[in-house]
Specification:
80% helix, 16 helices, 0% strand, mainly alpha
Length: 460
């Protein structure tokens, strides 16, 4: 049996980096889907923004179901590689291949054929394989150690490397596509390169980390002594699934956190997805969309460690609220009369600083809510909680994609044109500024009622 001492011991920096490298890889594909996928579909494949947005939204129901399934599967897995790492390993190559398929829509098809292809490839990549890997990866943090300080350190390094992944995909994707021919085939070839990089990064995470935290009550798995317990029936599995969901629903602080994830990823979807349209329409240069996201990622990388200092001094909840207020100022700064360059740099710097604090706090709160759930129910539903977190962020990104597609279509957005009608320009401004600000204000309101920081030391 693994002891509490083993579960709480210091984690080596090499293992922390190996863990963080995984989010570098996941942000390559997530960043591509958030920043460029809708743009690729509308301006390269030539399909309706409204129809694509609806496909992305409807696909989230598949994502929700599979996320819950993965949470159950992870909690009930006990392989030689542990609960989470084995699923990261199994999803690595399929996810890389599905990312290539995502940006390889056949051009000879009718629009209906293209939409069918998009539905299948998007669900395969985003709803199934990304979910399988990312829910497992997020769960891994809570399985490496129970030490609160070590978990926060793991998360800080993770956020730094996640920003590097976002930096790479935002800064290099459009230039690489241009270099490879600036057509549909160029997107496919670009993601062959990205897929290879992802495979290497995920392998580092799988083989460079260890799972030390064990569930006190392992149901229907092989025990540490090697004795096989009775296999459960289908009715037992369904009952346990409902029981696991019930444990999560009773966790009030996780419910608050899940709502914040939903709101923040609606915000992130608008911020990253609308950036290329904003740059194309307002700045008359679509390449600036990637540059804007790149600047923000660079600043975020620098400030993620500084935000760790504020977390230690102020706590995660207070740091998150302050970061949200600064994030709002970053969005509003695009209204300053200081020229295109000044506006772009100022806004991206402020948003990068704020987002370092937001992401560092919100992801570090997940293990805290897992421990609170165990304190209340004597059941540590790490997989289920991370699956519900994944559901929240995926629904958030799906809502933003659907709304952006609807806004663009309803306001007569003209694909492949720099000049847009006034109503389209207005819609793009609201997508890039107004909608994210509303979401952030809602996050602040929710966080006012979050008190777990104050009681955590009493329950851990």
């Amino acid at each position: 049996m693994k002891t509490r001492r083993t579960e709480n011991k210091e984690v080596l920096i090499s293992e922390k980096i190996s863990y963080g490298i995984g989010d570098f890889g996941y942000n390559l594909i997530y960043g591509a889907m958030s920043s460029f996928l809708l743009f690729y579909y509308t301006d390269y494949v030539g399909v309706s923004a409204l129809r694509v947005g609806m496909i992305m939204f409807i696909s989230k129901f598949v994502d929700v179901l599979f996320s819950i399934i993965m949470g159950i599967v992870i909690d009930r897995t006990n392989s030689k590689m542990g609960k989470a790492r084995v699923w990261i390993f199994r999803s690595t190559i399929p996810l890389a291949l599905s990312g290539i398929l995502l940006f390889s829509v056949p051009m000879g098809m009718s629009e209906t054929g293209k939409l069918v292809y998009i539905f299948i490839s998007y669900n395969l990549c985003a709803s199934i394989l990304f979910t399988m890997g990312n829910v497992s990866y997020s769960t891994l943090n809570a399985l490496i150690t129970k030490n609160k300080a070590e978990r926060e350190s793991l998360n800080t390094i993770r956020m730094f490397l996640a920003s590097m992944g976002a930096l790479l995909v935002n800064g290099a994707t459009l230039p690489l596509v241009r270099f490879l021919g600036d057509d549909n085939a160029a997107w496919r070839n670009a993601f062959i390169v990205i897929g290879i990089i992802m495979t290497v990064l995920f392998s580092v995470t799988v083989f460079g980390t260890r799972e030390r935290v064990t569930e006190e009550e392992n149901r229907d798995v092989i025990s540490d002594e090697g004795n096989s317990k009775r296999k459960s029936s289908l009715s037992d599995d369904l009952f346990n699934m409902l029981l696991d969901i019930g444990y999560v629903v009773k966790n009030k602080y996780f419910i608050m956190l899940a709502l914040c994830f939903l709101l923040m990823f609606i915000c992130y979807g608008f911020n990253s997805g609308a950036a290329v349209y904003y740059a194309k329409t307002i700045f008359k240069n679509s390449d600036l969309g990637g540059i804007m996201n790149t600047i923000q990622s660079i600043v975020q990388m620098v400030f993620v460690f500084i935000s760790g200092f504020f977390i230690k001094k102020l706590g995660k909840r207070n740091t998150l609220i302050i970061s949200c207020i600064v994030y709002i100022l970053g969005f509003l700064s695009v209204l300053l009369p200081i020229g295109i360059t000044g506006v772009m740099i100022t806004s991206c710097i402020i948003k990068g600083m704020a987002n370092a604090g937001i992401t560092n706090c919100i992801f570090a709160m997940i293990p805290d809510t897992i421990e609170y759930g165990y304190y209340k129910t004597k059941h540590r539903s790490a997989g289920m909680i991370n699956s519900f977190t994944n559901v929240s962020l995926k629904i958030g990104s799906g809502i933003s994609s659907a709304l952006m597609g609807a806004f663009l279509t309803m306001n007569n957005y003209a694909e492949n044109s720099i000049i847009q009608p006034p109503e389209a320009v207005s819609a793009i401004r609201h997508m890039y500024i107004t909608a994210p600000v509303i979401m952030i204000i809602c996050v602040i309101i929710v966080m006012i009622f979050y008190r777990l920081d104050k009681i955590y030391d009493q329950i851990a």
